[in-house]
Amino acid sequence: MSHLTIPEFQQYKKEGKKITVVTAYDALFTKIVEQAGLEIILVGDSLGMVVQGKSNTLSVTMEEMLYHTRMVSQAAQRALVIGDMPFLSYQVSVEESVKNAGRFLQAGAAAVKIEGGLPVLDRVEAMTGFGIPVMGHLGMTPQSVNQSGGYKVRGKEQAEADKILHEAKALETAGACGVVLECVPSVLAKTITEELKIPTIGIGAGKGCDGQVLVLYDVLGLFDDFVPKFVKPYAYLKADALQALTRYKEEVECGKFPSDAESYH
User: Which of 64, 182, 251, 262 is the catalytic position?
Assistant: First the structure.
């Protein structure tokens, strides 16, 4: 069984086939995601919030991202694995960005994702020049949360919408293999999708994108500290987990577990 390749990923757009992306951070969930037939797994720096319990993604380190990327990559048999480059792993210099991106490929990822437009174009050109596929990320960029004043929709004003469209085209020219559009008006996302030859992956960007990405824990209803408008839970596993653990505690306390069936004789 072979992994989905970057050219095959891009062929989806040409054929009008929707692309399904989800985050994953460990081997167990990677196997479940693959059994469901999803095409792409993003090892997202969102793990800082849903796994580590932080209020944002800024403190996630390269070593932490590589640790999770290795787990996911070793378990993945078919999906395209993309490693999310954390804050300060590509912003400092072109040289450092190429080196860190290469470390993601050494950890098993097939591509990396970086946030931003014009400031990172030279990074995208350098990485792709050395054979490292790069996914762009525009709109609401979580690593810029302090500058933007929080997690909110970007591109509502015409000037900002024009800027995002311009940056999307610039990322494509620089060699990006695709671009994530996060929290932008659906009309803008549709326009960008129609004007680019590379795939767009939306999150809070409407149905006009070439594909969609959601955080795994949001899809499964495991993380409910806050649920953005664009999230649709397809299960409520937190409730199931609470019920199971409560029953386990009750059965231990009343002597019902372990029974003879769970005991050796």
Answer: 182
